[in-house]
Amino acid sequence: MTTHFDLRLDTLRNAYEAGTTTPRQLILELRAKAAALNSEFNTFIHLLNAEELEPYLAALESKTPAELPLYGIPFAIKDNIDLAGIPTTAACPAFAYTPETNATIVEQLIALGAVPLGKTNLDQFATGLNGTRSPYGECRNSVHPDYPSGGSSAGSSLAVALGLASFALGTDTAGSGRVPAALNNLVGLKASKGLISTAGVVPACRTLDCVTFFTASAAEASQLLALTARLDPHDEYSRANPLWNDGSAFGRVKAFRFGVPKNP
Q: Does domain 11-228 have CATH number 3.90.1300.10?
């Protein structure tokens, strides 16, 4: 499919405010595009169907972009993070279960107006850096499909890189968010442990696991972190962040100095 949507957060907000599109129209078109591409890239394990999307879309019809910071913003969820009523597999069919509640981060994002598009493919149990260790198919690189996507948050990186979602949730224990982001020309934000709740995430290593954001820009990653970095009593590693800032306290950087290593 050749249809391309500008899914940047500010662009979508402006489009909704101007009435040039609606969340319902956009999400259903993105869902169709994602389904068409899935046989080639194996991005999604589960794409929400029209019935599953309806509660999220209907809830927005009584709201406006001014009321919700992420009004109508489409996002994808790595399939080791719970979305209520949708199976969580961690890319292992024998392990699969259907959660009754959302992971804390998913609950936060939906409350802010974001709309989940589906659950994305991953290296099984989030152990791998290639994006090829999944019974749901190998994920292919968005830039060069003959190469792997990187993992383990493979499908999440593809959802953003292929223009199917404004942002995606992944996890990162030892590179699983940053590696596929780098290989697909994205920003992969792994925040300090405890800033974003991991309640409702299938653990790989509880003391190291972090939820990550995949975005097209650092500014968008910063926006999402500012909206979701909260103390969560359901996560024993969660912590308050009284020192949160966006970097403005340090003033403008006057100059950069780069070091280039030399071979002997």
A: yes
